[in-house]
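In this supplementary section we document a worked example of the pipeline. Step one takes a protein sequence of length 285 as its only input; no multiple sequence alignment statistics are reported here. Step two produces a three-dimensional model, which step three serialises into C-alpha cells for compact storage. The input and output of this example are shown verbatim.
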Amino acid sequence: MNIFKLPAIKSTFVLSNKPDQTPCHSPYLHVGKIGLGYIFFNEHLSYLFFDMSVIPKDHVISSAKLKLYFIKPDLKCKSPEFFGIQALAQPFADCSTNYRNRPSTIPKTLKKVAIPKDNCSISVEITEIVKFWHSDRLMNNGLALLPVDFGTSGFLLFHSSNSSDCSKHPVLTITTKSDKGICYEEKESYYVSKTGGFSKAQEVWHYSLYSFIIRNIGCKKILFKLQSSPDNIDFIDDGLEIELLPGQTRILASNFFTRYNRVKFYLDPSESGTGQIEIWLQAKA
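The serialised model returned by step three reads:
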C-alpha cells in the first residue's frame, strides 16, 4: 500500500456580486450564498487544484480523501448545512479567474457534503473523481467548491493553499497499490491418452489479464480446447479444437467472461500410447 499526501498547489474564489474581481493569493476560500430565495442571491465559489502527476500510472487507486480546514467567520448569517464538490471541465488560474470567466463544472461528478458541527476540519471521500483523473477518463482541471443549500443564507470559509498556516492547507490523501508484481502462476503436467482428460479448473474472473500456455513435451500429436463454466460443474467448449505437435507451445484465453476455465486434452485419433503436456496459468490481478 502507498499513501500520497498532495497539498493543493493553487486555489482561488469568485463572487457573483463582484463578477470582475480577480482574487489573488487569497489566504481563504468562500463557499455559499448570501441572500434569501432561489433567484436573488450572491454566489460564492472556490476552486482547488492538486498535481496528480506524482501518482504512477501503474498504481491502482483504492481511496482518495480531500481534507479542508475551516476558518470560523464572525457573521450573523447562518452557515449552510451542505456544500458541493464537483470536477471542473476547464482549468482556472489564481489572479486571473473571476466570476465572468469562471470554469464550468462536470454535472455528473457533483458530490453533496454535509457540514459537521463544531469541527475544525472536514474530510470528504472523492475516490471516483480521482480515479477518473488518474485513468485519463477526465482531464484533471481541479475541483469546484460550490453552494448546494439554497434554503439558507451564509457561507463557509476554508483555509486556502495560500494560508499562512501551511498545516491547514487543503490536502488530498490518495491510497494506492502497485499492480507491478501482483501476478499469479501455476504449472501442471499431465499424461494424455485417447480417453482424454482435463486440467484443474481455474477461477479466473478476478484477473484483469490471464493466459493458458500449453506445451507438448511428449512425442505424440495432441488435440486440446479451452472450456468455460459459471459454477465449476457444467463446462462448455470455448473456441475451436487446436492441434499441438510434439515440441509445440500454444497460448490461449477465453473469449467470454466466466468464472472458471479449464483445458480439455486428448490424443489425436491417429496416435496410440501416451502423450505428455505441460499447462501454465499466468495471470495478473
